[in-house]
Amino acid sequence: MPLAQVTFRDPGDEAGEAAMRRYARKACELTRMDPQFGVPALTTIAKRESIYNHPKFRVNRTDVNAHGRIAPDGHPLNCSRGATQCIPSTFATHHQAGTATTPYDVVACMCATVNYVRRRYDVNQSGSNFAARVQQADPRRPPHWY
C-alpha cells in the first residue's frame, strides 16, 4: 500500500491483555500464522510497546522515529503508532490486504507486524521461531526494540 494511503484515525480499539489476545488471534488468522506461536508473541509485543494498546501509549513521540511533518492525528509522521508500534512507512509496506488503513487499528497493526518480522527477521510461516528471532516478542527475555 502506498504511504499516502495510510490514514490516522484512531478507532479507539479496546485495550488490555484479553483484548490483545483476541486481536492477535484474528491477525494470525489473516496472516496464516499458527496462533499457538503468534498470539503470545504479538501479545508480548503489545504489552511492551503500548502497554496493551493503552490510549496514552498508542503514539511514541520520544523514540528516534519521532520526526517529520505533522500528520492528521497531530503527531510527527514517523512516530511509531498502534498496539505494536509501527511507523507509517513500515505499516504501509507490510500492510495486510483487507485490513484497515490505519496503524491504530489493532488487527491491521498486528498483521503489518507479522508481515514485517517475516521479511526482516526471517520468521517462518507458522511463527514457530517468532520469539526466538524477535526478542521483543519473547516473554522470557528482556525487552528489546525490533
Structure explained in plain terms:
This protein has one domain. The chain has 5 helices and 2 strands; from the N terminus they run H-H-E-E-H-H-H. It has helices at residues 17-31, 35-50, 88-93, 106-121, 130-133; strands spanning 59-60, 80-81. Helix 1 (17-31) packs across helix 2 and helix 1 crosses helix 4. The two termini are 22 Å apart.
Order of helices and strands: HHEEHHH
Q: For the record, give the distance between the C-alpha atoms at the N and C termini, rounded to a whole number.
A: 22 Å
Largest sheet: 2 strands, antiparallel
Number of domains: 1
Calculate the mean pLDDT score and round it. Answer: 96
Weakly predicted, low-confidence segments: none
Which descriptor suits the 3D outline?
globular
Q: What strand line-up does the widest sheet have?
A: 1-2
Protein name: Transglycosylase SLT domain-containing protein
Organism: Streptomyces resistomycificus
